[in-house]
Amino acid sequence: MIEREHKFENADGITLFYREWQSDSGKARGIVFILHGLSEHSGRYRHVAAALTGGGFLCYGIDHRGHGKSGGTRAFIPDGQLAIDDLDELYTIVRAEQPDRPIFLFGHSMGSLIGLGFALRHPHRLRGIVTTGTPLHSEFGKPAWLVSLCLQAAQYLPRLRLSPPGGPSVLTADRDMLRQWWADPLIDKGMWRVGTSAALVLLAREICRSAASIEIPLLIMHGTGDRLAPDSGSAFLAEAVGSDDVTLKIYPELRHELVNEVSRAEIITTVKNWLVERA
């Protein structure tokens, strides 16, 4: 696999970083945008890209604003639409270079919300979406007064670090992956910012309201051991979308980061095969 690094300046003047992965042959049956979750970065999905490029896909992984090697206040996305706009700019760059190949999205957690939001706004640009750990129902596990307080505080102190991330053990049971998480300097290990948490709640609500308008194929994956994002959100998504090609896979006891879990090889193979069938 060949990896290249690129940058572009978005409409807000923030320099955004992204990775390009392709097979040694240079041939590709389709394109996959890889969208990472909150506080992490695209480099954590190199093993996913390796499997997908082996399946004949050209992959692009963006570091969302405020994440990884991209500019902006660390771990701060005050409005989900801003991240969707950033993805739109990358889409335009890639589509100009690759005008004919079908484009898919793979999104984890926050990345899945950004990907689904993109699909709502641009319904004809994508061939399909794969999601893992989608936090559509994250607010349901918290007191209503706390969610309301977060939304109000975000209007006045959006950069305030107040929301607890829960610790890395909620991500995976794989100890080697947890050691890599602690050693990774590009992961933001602080508390979540109020403005970012509020933005994700509002984006999740929008997706829940408008899910019926998503009519492209979806592969929706979730673990029942996910304490950050209840698997009920993925079950809801599978029922609510307007697509007639929906695959829901619920994995008993697996935690939030399915592609970093102990059974990740099986899960990544499922993703690859699903994409190959629809490319």
Molecular structure report:
With 279 residues, this protein is an alpha/beta fold. 35% of the residues lie in helices and 20% in strands. It has helices at residues 46-54, 80-97, 110-121, 144-153, 175-183, 194-210, 232-240, 264-278, and strands at 2-9, 15-22, 30-35, 57-62, 103-108, 128-132, 161-163, 192-193, 218-223, 246-251. The strands form two sheets. It has an eight-stranded mixed sheet, with helices on both faces. Strands 7-8 form a two-stranded antiparallel sheet. Helix 4 (144-153) packs across helix 6 (194-210). The two termini are 20 Å apart.
Can you tag this structure with a few keywords?
globular, alpha/beta, 279 residues
Q: What is the terminal separation in angstroms?
A: 20 Å
| Envelope shape | globular
How much helicity do the residues have? Answer: 25-40%
What order do the SSEs take from the amino end to the carboxyl end, as H and E? EEEHEHEHEHEHEHEHEH
Strand tally, please?
10
Cα radius of gyration in angstroms:
17 Å
Structural class: alpha/beta
The biggest beta sheet, please?
8 strands, mixed
In spatial order, strands of the major sheet run: 1-2-4-3-5-6-9-10
User: Approximately what portion of the residues adopt beta-strand conformation?
Assistant: 15-25%
Counting DSSP H or I runs of 4 or more residues, the number of helices is 8
Q: Report mean pLDDT, rounded to a whole number.
A: 95
